[in-house]
Design goal:
single chain; Elongation Factor Tu (Ef-tu), domain 3; 9 helices; 25% helix; 370 residues; six-stranded antiparallel β-barrel; SH3 type barrels; alpha/beta; 3 domains; Rossmann fold
């Protein structure tokens, strides 16, 4: 293949990771072009960084002497990601829109746009490895375990991953910044973006309040004693400690309160004292339909599972069901497992796929049943 005559389009976000991805591919001889995507309507509340990010992307493209395309997928994002996010929040669940953004936008509509531009592949600054296996491309964790993003990529279709390059998978983050500095890229020391993809650094409850109505209800102990009033199930997350406003009202004053459960039928929050209360810990969970990145498994098998992004892999038994769902039994109880989030399975460093967490079974419930 004539690399210089075969365009590869890199998703340039204006950050150091995508900048170095473009740099590495250009050094390898590819005909590199950049694509800046706007996935959220710009506003003037001080939280949206899209305008500055675009200027940074332009500076990167100038330094690398590559063309830069600009496109807005805001309408697609609203329809395919944000509306789902709001629906799940209204139901009292806690979705992860970054997973959907990768599946629907970055490796969905953006990938199709890239192909229309005539590119052979779409490249990104994700920290993950795509390795050719006997049955096609396989998703592996990045060498830099602290930056690995395979959790967020588990829902992308295998055929879309096969059209993708992720040049940073073999690099440590510190090496990425050093490559950027040596190349004179102006974003070599730009801070990493944090927070949910479209919310960024803005206050979460304040942001949600623009789209969801408040539905106050009781905050109760498992025994039914009312300790306070919440503003709506959508504004709280399992395991949450801050923002409950019930500290010091009852019981052991040296023990903080944590959100252990949401009772949707009664519009109630259930809280407990103690970071490791049995109602906060789950021995098993059930999932929705599993998205496999490998040949689907039918029999139970051993693996490790993550139920949130920054979590050490947890040993578990994975039990596939005939309807495509699964039950996952953990060797050790897990804290604050949250419906709406994702359970992602691994064998060593290979990502097998994942699914939405539908329900959890606390150790307290299982002890009571026994």
């Amino acid at each position: 293949m004539n690399k210089s005559a075969t365009p590869i389009i890199v998703g340039l976000s204006g950050g150091v990771d995508s900048a170095v991805a473009a740099l590495l591919l250009k050094e390898q001889g590819w005909g590199v072009q950049g694509l800046f995507m706007s996935n959220w309507e710009e506003d003037d509340d001080g939280y949206c960084t899209s305008a500055q990010d675009f200027q940074d992307a332009r500076a990167i493209a100038r330094e690398l002497a590559i063309p830069l395309h600009r496109v807005s997928f805001a309408a697609e994002y609203k329809a395919r990601v944000f509306e789902y996010f709001l629906t799940e929040q209204r139901a009292g669940r806690t979705p992860n829109p970054d997973v959907l953004c990768n599946r629907e936008i970055k490796f969905g509509v953006a990938l199709r746009y890239v192909r229309r531009l005539g590119a052979s592949h779409f490249a990104t600054g994700h920290y993950a490895r795509l390795i050719r296996g006997p049955n096609g491309v396989e998703l592996y964790k990045a060498v830099d375990g602290g930056k690995d993003q395979s959790y967020f990529l588990h829902a992308v279709a295998v055929e879309h991953l096969s059209q993708t390059l992720m040049p940073l998978g073999e690099l440590e983050k510190c090496a990425v910044r050093e490559r950027a500095r040596r190349a004179g890229l102006p974003v070599y020391d730009k801070p990493d973006s944090t927070g949910i993809c479209f919310i960024g650094e803005r206050p979460f409850r304040e942001f949600l309040g623009q789209f969801l109505e408040q539905r106050p209800g009781p905050i109760e102990t498992p025994e039914g004693e009312v300790l306070g009033t919440h503003q709506g199930l959508a504004f709280y997350t399992l395991g949450q400690r801050e923002g409950l406003h019930i500290g010091g009202r009852r019981g052991r004053l040296d023990q903080p309160w944590y959100l252990a459960a949401k009772d949707g039928a009664r519009n109630a929050l259930i809280v407990v004292q103690g970071h490791d209360h049995p109602l906060l810990r789950s021995s098993s969970l059930t999932t929705g339909a599993m998205h496999w990145l490998v040949d689907p498994r039918a029999a139970p098998f051993r693996c490790t599972v993550k139920v949130r992004y920054r979590q050490v892999d947890q040993a578990a038994t994975f039990e596939p069901k005939g309807d495509g769902t699964a039950r996952i039994l953990f060797d050790s109880p897990q804290r604050a497992v949250t419906p709406g989030q994702y359970a992602v399975a691994y064998e060593n460093n290979r990502c097998l796929g994942g699914a939405v967490i539908e329900s959890v079974h606390s150790t307290a419930e299982q002890q009571a049943a026994a």
